[in-house]
Amino acid sequence: MATQTTASCTGSTLLQPISDIINLPLDQVNFVACQLFALLMAVWFRLYLHPSKTSPFIRHVVATLLGFYLALFCFGWYSLHFLVQSGLSYGVMVFAGLERMHRYCFIVTMGYLIICQITRVYVFDYGMYSADFTGPMMVITQKITSMAFELHDGLTKREGQLTPNQKYLAISRMPSLLEYLSYNCNFMGILAGPTCSYNDYMAFIEGTCYEPRHQENANGKENGKYKQSEPSPKNDVISKLCTCALSLAVYLSLCKLLPVEHSIDDDFISSTPFHLQVVYLYLAMLALRPKYYFVWTLADAINNAAGFGFNGYNKDGSPRWDLISNLRILDIESATSFKSFLDNWNIQTSLWLKRVCYERCPINPTAATFMLSAMWHGVYPGYYLTFVTGIAMTMAARAVRNNIRPYFLVSDSHKRIYDVITWAATQVAISYTVVPFVLLAVGPSLKFYWSWYFCLHLLCLLVVLALPVKKRRREVKGQTYSLQKERQQDNQNEHNCTDNNCNQKDKTS
């Protein structure tokens, strides 16, 4: 096994002895070691390169150089793709016209990512489901495309054309090359993210992230103004590291006992009652999720340790460090709807999809968002099977919630019954949907769905055909358009009145 992992790893082989001892692939050992090193560097960065002691230029330089070092250690020369992708996109931002810059940048960035994914999967190591250089490129793609759209909003649109969230995210000047590289490739997020907005990152670098714009519920006031105290992330970092340790222990204990591949074993299918197959699938997916809990929570802890991620205060005065958190574990495991599960899973990616695609796509934004998500994840056929299934699940869940849920809101007991039923249905639906995402290939994925007789696909189709779906998005768009039209009319009336007054003054004079 050690020989195989060495051959498949493109980064440093310094930790090969540790890989042999713990019997884990070298690329995964390198990844965890680099993240732990980044955690230590984050504490040093917050204490010794604090904005009160160091200029933003120095903080940008150090964050970028440390990021490139970690990338080289993990991925070797493949990390040059990070620079090439960032450089091409920056060139598009600089030389393309502002009106179309965001579209060209999106095409170039996504196109380069897809080319790298195709090369890695179909040329080098099909089926290698471990740490690889396209993982960081996925996060960089989110950052570049988000920045392109935010630049377009800030430089080409008036405030009245933007939503409150778009106003907050809009960028009013072109970033320098150093700022751009620091945002894309800083050591805190180059390996596992999470994605953040450019304005939030710059506020962190410049030391303005603790100002009242983030403080919805402050821990106190002094002379009518918010106190400018800097909260400590120590408690949150320790809590998240404990979550990481627990998640890693659960994953290493259960992942080999409950493999998802066992659900398509011929003997298992023929000898196991269907209801037990359902239970096994849920347990197998439950055992798989802690891997993502570990990676994303550790990445969040690294950013918090550096002082990044402050999101105001709770009502009790305690600081919140969830500005760029990627998941809410309790909300995931207790989700009672398909949408609730997705809203709490990979949160920053969901926000990116919403801001870049869902809010801006004029035709069928739900399907377009799922397809973009599939393309962004990679080129394995299982990804597309998962997200096509996800479209049907989302539409069916929306129809059930709109038509059936109101009947269970008449009392608390009815509501609890509804929550229990929808929790079980959500967990089964998520597990059923995600199987191709884990199996990757078409053959095993279709074999699984055949063993279940495509039952949830057919059920979703029947629900969508039988129950009406409220078109909320179009209603909201119509209301927004009518409000904008009324404002334009009011502005026109005021303008006409002003013109009339000016004409009368001219005539009088």
TrEMBL record:
Chain spans, region Disordered: 480-509
Keywords, in A-Z order: Acyltransferase, Endoplasmic reticulum, Membrane, Transferase, Transmembrane, Transmembrane helix
InterPro entries (alphabetical): LPLAT_7/PORCN-like (IPR049941), MBOAT_fam (IPR004299)
Keyword check for Transmembrane: yes
Superkingdom of origin: Eukaryota
Biased composition (Basic and acidic residues): 484-497
Main location: endoplasmic reticulum
A Gene Ontology term for the protein's cellular component: endoplasmic reticulum membrane
Name of this chain's protein: Membrane bound O-acyltransferase domain containing 2
Organism: Cynoglossus semilaevis (Tongue sole)
